């Protein structure tokens, strides 16, 4: 599952300063405790951490896209508010067709962050996504966690997935979302050097959790949505029923209440290299 499963908001900060290192150590400790509680079944605050940790972290990482550009959050002509819908972990044989049919029914575009091995297993999915007007992003080849892996292995998977997705789509792939939202300074530098945009989110309703109901997904989304929000949902065996059911409620409601869905901005935000 692709979720910012940690309250650790200091990921990717350079360790050159002592207080940065202290923040990272405290964050990692809190993260381990949080994971232990989650394994015991205490997962009701996943959506809170997944959303507000990202909102707190955003000012520290200007090269990472947490929310849509200020100039594009509200349409000056219509007053409609903008929402960026993203879907992680696919494609899947069962879930992806359901999502694509749902998006087509409501004329809603989405950005799919795909796992390379899944795209290889279902090669017909990417051309269908592109033909329907959706965008494609990189979610590594095996859903590799950048916090628990050596960076050369992460970079190799990103490049492997990028090559595969570009071959399948016939288009450049310029967006990367690290699994679990876990990024590092090396990953940020790699994205800059490869002209890739590192993307997270600012709204995570925890659809991946078996303890989250369709009603909870809808309520949390509507309560915490704001103009320019990047909403992350999932396309995997755990979400095959919950996520389409939640979107079937959310999409018509949001469209009726003046929300416009857009693809994530293309290209990269050029910033200085993280030392």
Structural overview:
This protein has 275 residues and is of the alpha/beta class. The chain has a single domain, classed as Glycoside hydrolase/deacetylase (TIM Barrel), CATH 3.20.20.370. The protein is built from 9 helices and 8 strands. The strands form 2 sheets. Strands 2, 3, 4, 7 and 8 form a 5-stranded parallel beta sheet that branches. Strands 1-6-5 form a 3-stranded parallel beta sheet. Helix 3 (95-106) packs parallel to helix 9 and helix 8 (214-224) packs parallel to helix 9 (242-256). The two termini are 30 Å apart. The model is unreliable at 1-17, 39-43 and 269-275 (pLDDT under 50).
Overall 3D shape: globular
The main sheet comes to: 5 strands, parallel
The radius of gyration over CA amounts to 18 Å
Query: What is the helix tally?
Result: 9
What is the residue-mean pLDDT, rounded to a whole number? 86
User: How many extended strands?
Assistant: 8
**Element order: H for helix, E for strand:** HHEEHEHHEHEHEHEHE
Which fold name fills CATH's third level, the topology? TIM Barrel
Q: What's the CATH superfamily, by name?
A: Glycoside hydrolase/deacetylase
Helicity level, as a percent range? 40-55%
Question: Alpha-carbon distance between the termini?
Answer: 30 Å
What is the percentage of strand-forming residues? 5-15%
Number of domains: 1
Proper CATH architecture: Alpha-Beta Barrel
Q: Which spans have pLDDT < 50 for at least 5 consecutive residues?
A: 1-17, 39-43, 269-275
Q: What structural class is derived from the secondary structure elements? A: alpha/beta
CATH top-level class? Alpha Beta
């Amino acid at each position: 599952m692709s979720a910012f499963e940690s309250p650790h908001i200091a990921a990717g900060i350079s360790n050159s300063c002592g207080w940065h290192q202290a923040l990272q150590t405290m964050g990692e400790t809190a993260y381990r405790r949080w994971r232990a509680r989650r394994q015991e079944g205490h997962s009701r605050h996943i959506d809170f951490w997944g959303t507000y940790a990202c909102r707190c972290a955003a000012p520290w990482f200007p090269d990472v896209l947490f929310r849509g550009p200020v100039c594009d959050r509200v349409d000056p002509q219509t007053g409609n508010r903008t929402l960026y819908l993203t879907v992680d972990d696919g494609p899947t044989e069962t879930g992806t067709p359901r999502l694509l049919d749902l998006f087509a029914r409501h004329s809603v575009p989405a950005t799919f962050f795909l796992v390379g091995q899944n795209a290889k297993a279902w090669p017909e999915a990417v051309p269908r996504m592109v033909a329907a007007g959706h965008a494609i992003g990189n979610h590594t080849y095996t859903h590799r966690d950048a916090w628990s892996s050596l960076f050369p292995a992460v970079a190799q998977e990103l490049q492997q997935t990028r090559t595969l997705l570009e071959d399948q789509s016939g288009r450049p792939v310029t967006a990367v979302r690290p699994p679990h939202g876990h990024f590092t300074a090396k990953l940020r530098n790699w994205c800059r050097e490869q002209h890739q945009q590192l993307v997270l989110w600012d709204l995570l309703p925890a659809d991946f959790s078996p303890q989250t109901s369709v009603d909870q997904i809808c309520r949390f989304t509507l309560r915490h949505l704001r103009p320019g929000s990047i909403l992350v949902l999932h396309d995997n065996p755990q979400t095959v029923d919950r996520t389409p059911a939640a979107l079937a409620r959310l999409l018509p409601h949001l469209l009726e209440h003046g929300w416009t869905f857009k693809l994530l901005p293309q290209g990269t935000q050029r910033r200085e290299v993280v030392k």
